[in-house]
């Protein structure tokens, strides 16, 4: 296992991969009641085995299961906790020019960790594929605690259910924090040494259009940042020293569309300066993400993984442009503490982005080749 607390690879991935056609078809057949669960699991296992081999063949030292067992990057994890149920609201999430499928998570009791949580079972299988290879680390990505909170207050019905079980916000923070910490420790007990928190909440706050709507709901930006920070850090306390914790900040990734725009400046003093993670995976693939100046708020010694290679579209970035941008970021963060990755995963939901599997791997090859040229 690569010790990422001591070894800096300078190239990385965010985690989700395009679902193979056979897996998509199998999931559709299961949803339609045409096959049993064991058949679905068999195809998932086979697909993940093939993916891990491709990741290793590509030169990656940190691998994931592609999130092949999930429908969404976040909701499946939420539904796995006790006290949270799957609901179908009137609308999905509103992205730029597209609305997603309509699914959500709603409180139906006190939130606690479920030892049979699907993420635990998923990681157990992934770890079994790489445990004998000392050069490979298996990473588990989970949605951030703040993201769960944001879902539980999404829509009037969700907010009404939340108030029924949690009239006190502090007790909600405590329960979410404990449920998440218990999940992280369960993953650790199975050999997980790399957990990444995927988090769109900060990407929503920086968007002025989102902000304008929240004003009507009697929110203020600073109070919301304090709440999100408290939620995330509540889960990241008293964890093993050899567990690498990171977070990925995104502005939405669904079928090659996006949900929010805005640079990191409005959240830098909370997210970069105070969140208890060792690394930040940051979307920087176009102008919607702003410039690198807010990186000055990142605590000394922490790693910044620059998401300069877009996962949304197939066109390959020019290597020299990537090199120049990395050098620009190095004005704010020491070059040794920087790394390069794709801006997001290739399939945050099972729909996937609008590119082919070959184009997906070409993006990853570009990341590795560019990192090699800069860092050696």
TrEMBL record:
Matches recorded under InterPro entries: Met_Synth_C/arc, UROD/MetE-like_sf
Cited Pfam families: Meth_synt_2 (PF01717)
Alphabetized GO MF terms: 5-methyltetrahydropteroyltriglutamate-homocysteine S-methyltransferase activity; zinc ion binding
Organism superkingdom: Bacteria
GO biological process, alphabetically ordered: methionine biosynthetic process
Domain called Cobalamin-independent methionine synthase MetE C-terminal/archaeal: residue spans: 242-350
Protein name: Methionine synthase
Classification of source organism: Bacteria, Bacillati, Bacillota, Bacilli, Lactobacillales
């Amino acid at each position: 296992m690569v010790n990422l607390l001591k070894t800096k690879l300078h190239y990385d991935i965010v985690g989700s991969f395009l679902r193979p056609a056979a897996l998509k078809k199998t999931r559709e057949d299961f949803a339609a009641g045409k096959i049993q669960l064991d058949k679905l699991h068999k195809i998932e296992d086979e697909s993940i085995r093939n993916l891990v081999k491709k990741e290793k063949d590509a030169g990656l030292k940190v691998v994931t299961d592609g999130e092949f067992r999930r429908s969404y990057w976040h909701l499946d994890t939420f539904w796995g906790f006790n006290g949270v149920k799957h609901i179908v609201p009137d609308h999905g999430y509103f992205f730029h020019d597209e609305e997603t499928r309509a699914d959500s998570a709603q409180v139906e009791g006190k939130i606690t960790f479920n030892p049979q949580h699907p993420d635990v079972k998923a990681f157990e299988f992934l770890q079994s594929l790489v445990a004998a290879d000392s050069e490979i680390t298996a990473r588990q990505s989970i949605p951030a605690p703040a993201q769960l909170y944001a879902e539980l207050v999404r829509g009037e019905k969700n907010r009404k259910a939340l108030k029924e079980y949690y009239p006190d916000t502090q007790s909600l923070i405590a329960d979410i924090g404990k449920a998440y910490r218990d999940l992280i420790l369960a993953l650790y007990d199975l050999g997980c040494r790399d957990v990444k928190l995927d988090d769109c909440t900060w990407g929503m706050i920086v968007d002025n259009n989102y902000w304008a709507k929240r004003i009507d709901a009697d929110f203020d930006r600073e109070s919301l940042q304090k709440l999100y920070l408290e939620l995330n850090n509540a889960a990241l306390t008293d964890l093993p020293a050899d567990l690498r914790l990171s977070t990925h900040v995104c502005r939405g990734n669904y079928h090659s569309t996006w949900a929010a725009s805005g640079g990191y400046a409005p959240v830098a003093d909370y997210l970069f300066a105070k969140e208890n993670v060792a690394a930040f995976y940051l979307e920087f693939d176009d102008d919607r993400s702003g410039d690198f100046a807010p990186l000055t708020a990142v605590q000394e010694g922490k790693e910044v993984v620059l998401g300069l290679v877009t996962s949304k579209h197939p066109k390959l970035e020019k290597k020299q442009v990537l090199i120049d941008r990395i050098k620009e970021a190095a004005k704010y963060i020491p070059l040794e503490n920087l790394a390069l990755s794709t801006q997001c995963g290739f399939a945050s939901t099972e729909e996937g982005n609008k590119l082919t599997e070959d184009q997906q791997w070409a993006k990853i090859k570009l990341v590795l080749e560019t990192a090699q040229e800069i860092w050696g």
